[in-house]
Amino acid sequence: MPLISLDEPGKEVLMMGNEAIARGALEAGVQVAAAYPGNPSSEIIGSLAGVAKEMGIYVEWSVNEKVALEVVAAAATSNVNALVAMKQNGLNVASDFLLNLNLTGIRGGLVMVVADDPSGISSTNEEDSRIYAKLADIPLLEPSTFQEAKEMTLQAFDLSRKIGNVVMIRSVTRISHARGNVVLGQLPRDLPTPRFDTSSPLSPMPSSLSHPALHRKLERAAEILKDSEFNHYEGPENPEILIITCGAGWFFSKEAIDILGLSSRLGVLKIGTTWPLPGTVLLNSLKTTEKVLFLEEVDPVLENNVAAFFAFHNRELPAIDFMGKNSGHVPSTGELSPDLVLQVLSGLTGVRIPDEEPDYVEKTKEALLNYAPNRSLAFCAGCPHRSSLWAIKKALALDGRDGILFGDIGCYSLGIFATGYFQLKTLHAMGSGAGMACGFGNFARLGATQPSLAVCGDSTFFHSVVPALMNSVHSGSNFLLIVLDNSATAMTGFQPHPGSPVNAMGMPAPSIVIEDLCRSIGMETVVRDPFDIEDTALTIYEMIQRQTGPKALVLRHECALVSAKKRKAQFRMRVDPEKCVGDDCGCNRLCTRVFKCPGLIWDRSGQKSKIDEAICAGCGVCVNICPSQAIVREDA
Amino acid sequence: MNKDPYNLVVAGVGGQGNVLGSQLIGTVLVNQGYKVTIGETYGASQRGGSVMSHVRISAKRQYGPLIPPRFADLVIALEPSEAARVLARYGNRNTVAIVNTRPVYSIDVTGGAVHYPETNGLMEKIRSLTSKAYFLDATDRALQMGNPILANIIMIGAVSAAGILPITESNLEKAISEVLSSEKVSVNLKAFAVGKELIASQISRDC
After folding, report:
1. Which residue segments constitute the domains of chain A, with CATH numbers given?
2. A9 near A154, Cβ under 8 Å?
3. Residue A404 · residue A385 · CB < 8 Å
4. Confidence band (pLDDT; 50, 70, 90) for B206?
5. Which H/E stretch holds residue B123?
6. Mean pLDDT of A192-207
7. What pLDDT shows up at residue B42?
8. Are A252 and B64 inside 8 Å of each other by CB?
9. Which residues of A touch B139 (CB under 8 A)?
């Protein structure tokens, strides 16, 4: 029985922040939920998809975030409650629609959860999505605990219905991808049928009417939220320093105060309703102090908003020193941590952070230096991306014209590092590798001579590569798109996409065939298995010789992690110690030093290569790497 | 547990079942009425990187998802050099460590850019940073059972036998059926028993 649909009100369970959000949506009677997967947000829709059938709701993995928001908007303009989830980058994709939807408003409930990834733990970029709430004039809520993540989602639906507009929840990695206690509430019994009122069309025009109306909705939200339980103060009546915090910063602030014994000196104002600001709460708190410290993740959003609030209310307030990202008291970007908050508070109050005795600290430094060898990220053992990038490396070396491989977002982004032989030369947004390669493929007329190539994954292909392909056909760009089709959205947890034979709810679904789509718009397209490294390399070489418009090569091999779940390894691998002569070979340790599969290790005592049987996936590809044929594969 | 909050780090390498291990421990304790918070650092968990779960257990309140430096009470390391890495940051004189002895070499090591520490030296270093360290050949036993991933449950068996956390066969069984599924119960309980047996000789030496 999945936790999020457990019909036991009052039961206390351990839930991931993302599951708590999903549970809150179920308790609010959500009927439609959609997303494109992206960490740290993926488990919100993932867990709802798992209970869609039993709960009688519609859940989908959409082709991209803009479509996801459009799908849920169709529900929310038809009187039902709908949830969309995304990571920070996803909101960039969805923003065009959001900035029109906010003006028409909705007729049901629409909660948009954006999970930011401070410090880019599972992202290529870092951005603060909260700025969109201000841009779109929609209410913004930020949970600080797991219980609050559930309650906030539940209340966000209520607020959304009351004001007739989208409500945004901003979570962060340390809430979404953490687990904690959650007390379950009631699940609803009767849910409405979606019906769109055709007598009343939805259009933002004229903006001279819709924009002021939007502002009035935000004022109404401020009124509804003015006594919200999500905002609270804890500390002395007149704190030496008032900490204003939100999200995960609240946990860290509370603990740092405990550790440093500052509870009689410092106060913490936790704000859960960060836009529009809770005016009365702020005014009352700001009157009690002369120093304010802001602790929030990524950009100084709350800080700047409170500073503006202060400017508008300066006659009612004392002179206040504002400390935070603008003043340099807190790093200007990135995530907060207990140690960072301890350091900031220690620096401001002069209270020392407790530490071990110097001899212990000395030993830890030595441990880090000599006993914790670096662990670079690497493709998994048996990963088809390793073979694909090896083949690309070979083909580009053979071609010799300094070909450019434009990169994209997915596991294969690691191709910019050693595990992918440093082959990727750019890394930006979803689909942008193909767009850039399409552009460069047209520059021969400017005298450019470098071959233009791009890689993308199968899920990225559907998400945003297709428009660049139509662009390349129409513009006659000479570029090669290599689709690394591992039949999975592997980076985020193997969610299905339009190429999959099943949908989010586990039901059979028609799949779109990548090569058919490419051919249908006029691209020369071939399909290869990257595990056949020689053939793949030759195919790439051959395809970049001809200047006959855009071409596609689909390198299809199932993700090793998916294979491992389905079936036993194909081969049992071993290194023949008679044939591997170690450093005397002259290959300069090609298999361990260059190919770098984690399943192949260097046995220091034997001075030969060896298979690590706990890691090796039994794919057999390395047989073709060893020049001495010392690697042997036997049917497992 | 002799402290509140009791802070546990489960450390390892992507793909070792670190997240599941901490989730099972957390579920067992929430079912006993504790407030448990787990912070999972797994941005690149499947991809060869270091992975850590911070588990914070309290009878009083919900703690944050990250343990402050030097505040770990217990380190469960699924990989020995990860024990050293975690102890260097979160360890203190009273920290206890339970360590799987089987190294997982990073591509930096196999590529020859850095050396993996020699086993005895590494064990000595771990001992010097803890009040008590147990070493278990968990992966070797898991391989004998047919799947190296079972090392994580073997380690939980050891934690239980060492009397560090209130985990029993029956409450773990309940957690496994809640978190995984009932068909996964039997093989995992076997691994749990193996862990108890593996640590037994080291516990008897303490007495």
Report:
1. 3-224 (3.40.50.970), 232-349 (3.40.50.920), 384-565 (3.40.50.970), 569-635 (3.30.70.20)
2. no
3. no
4. low
5. helix B119-128
6. 96
7. 63
8. yes
9. 614
